[in-house]
Specification:
The protein has one domain: Roll (2,3-Dihydroxybiphenyl 1,2-Dioxygenase, domain 1). Helices cover 18% and strands 34% of the residues. The strands form two sheets. Strands 1-4-3-2 form a four-stranded mixed sheet, covered by helices on one side. The protein is globular. The two termini are 26 Å apart.
């Protein structure tokens, strides 16, 4: 069976603030909306949508594991963009033999990760 993620949904109390974050800070491509639709972002054939509601924030901060991880090609540029927008990265840049990554919280408090794989 060939399986691919179709949609990832993130919950937020302030949907417009999260939509702004993913569009203008992270740089995701918005999908044109019709009146009343939830914000959607194109992830190369899959989609991220922001839904009104309580964010999925774990009660215990450990183990630290993101709600969603985005694979990117240029982590350094992404970090500059996050810093420009005042996004805190409490653990800094982390790495191992397979890649480098940074984690941060979106405006709803969801733990998000950007990863650059080493080829």
């Amino acid at each position: 069976m060939n399986v691919q993620i179709a949609v990832v949904s993130l919950w937020a109390f302030d949907v417009p603030a999260c939509a702004h974050f993913y569009r203008d800070v992270i740089g995701l491509e918005p999908v044109p909306l019709h009146a009343g639709e939830r914000p959607h972002f194109n992830l190369n054939g899959s989609y991220l949508t922001i839904i009104q509601g309580h964010p999925a924030i774990p009660p215990d901060p450990e183990p630290r594991f993101p709600v969603v991880t985005f694979s990117i090609q240029d982590l350094d540029s992404a970090i500059e963009r996050l810093r420009f927008h005042g996004v805190g990265m409490p653990w800094g840049v982390e790495s191992n033999a397979s890649g480098r990554w940074v984690m941060f919280h979106d405006p709803a408090g969801n733990l998000i990760e950007l990863v650059e794989w080493i080829k």
